[in-house]
Design goal:
- With 260 residues, the protein is α+β, with helices and mostly antiparallel strands.
- The chain has three domains: 20-112, Serine Threonine Protein Phosphatase 5, Tetratricopeptide repeat (Alpha Horseshoe); 127-189; 193-252, SH3 Domains (SH3 type barrels, Roll), CATH 2.30.30.40.
- The chain is 51% helix and 14% strand.
- It contains nine helices and seven strands; from the N terminus they run αααααααααβββββββ.
- Strands 6-5-4-1-7 form a five-stranded antiparallel β-sheet. Strands 2-3 form a two-stranded antiparallel sheet.
- Strand 2 (200-204) and strand 3 (213-218) form a beta hairpin.
- The longest helix has 32 residues, at 158-189.
- The chain is globular.
- The chain starts with a helix and ends in an 8-residue tail after the last strand.
Length: 260
């Protein structure tokens, strides 16, 4: 009996691996939601799409469809919220990026949005657009192993020794460069982000209803939460303007269970 113990281990691993699939959406549910989307029943499709994402059956298409459903249902704040959440999960996905840029063009505060950099230089300024910290770690590993192997390589010829030293320094510089960009990506991911939920929100100078209003902001505008506590949060707009808003006017991890 003991000689077959490994079969029981494989069986247990198989069950544990496929356990999440027990709650996967059925073909009937998928067809039902597709009919809702094709028939413009946006409100009816939202609970299904949002429920699947909460169950970790997430894909860029699911996020894009959920955002589109909220937009067509008149809730541009939630539409932007789910696109921003999708960008955290799929930072380099072209579908999500195209949907976000298209939605930004419809925002009342679109002129406050910064230009999204493109091209090779964007990796230096906005590395989080190209991948997650895990992707950065995968890029660092080959250079570290390269340095180790070059250290073990002891060529007899002096020219090869100089070549080995050059390769070691190149590997070190590249590993440090990718390491810095990975740390920047981690820091970007730790930011507390929010999206304006209400159609119009007053941006106050201080955490008080009687504090002077510096600007009126509108639904769909992404913000950075700098501090504060309920019911007042200090936020920063994409153009650098700071102020205070009430937490119930935002959708974020602070005010919504499904936060970023």
């Amino acid at each position: 009996m003991t000689k077959f113990w490994w079969r029981w281990v494989l069986l247990i691993l198989l069950v544990l691996t496929h356990f999440p699939c027990l709650g996967a959406p059925s073909q009937g549910e998928i067809e039902k939601v597709n009919r809702m989307l094709s028939g413009s029943n946006w409100k009816g499709a939202i609970p299904f799409l949002q429920g699947w994402i909460h169950q970790e059956y997430a894909s860029p298409i699911l996020f894009a469809n959920l955002s589109l459903a909220y937009e067509k249902n008149g809730d541009i704040g939630q539409a932007m919220f789910w696109l921003k959440r999708a960008e955290r999960k799929f930072p380099a996905n072209t579908l999500i990026r195209a949907r976000r840029l298209a939605l930004e063009e419809k925002l009342p505060d679109r002129f406050a949005m910064p230009q999204t950099p493109n091209g090779p230089g964007a990796f230096l300024t906005h590395p989080w657009q190209f991948g997650t910290p895990a992707h950065g770690a995968l890029l660092i590993c080959p250079f570290i192993w390269g340095m180790v192997l070059l250290r073990l390589w002891k060529p007899a010829a002096s020219r090869l020794q100089r070549f080995r030293i050059v390769l070691q320094w190149m590997s070190l510089v590249l590993a440090l460069g990718f390491g810095v960009q990975t740390l920047r990506t981690i820091g970007h991911g730790l930011r507390r982000e929010a999206v304006v939920r209400n159609s119009e929100v007053k941006l106050h100078q201080g955490p008080d209803q009687n504090s002077p209003v510096t600007r009126i902001i509108h639904a769909g505008l992404p913000l950075i939460i700098q501090g504060g506590a309920k019911p007042w949060l200090q936020v920063e707009m994409p153009d650098g303007t700071s102020g205070w808003v009430r937490d119930e006017t935002l959708t974020s991890e602070t005010t919504d269970k499904s936060g970023f």
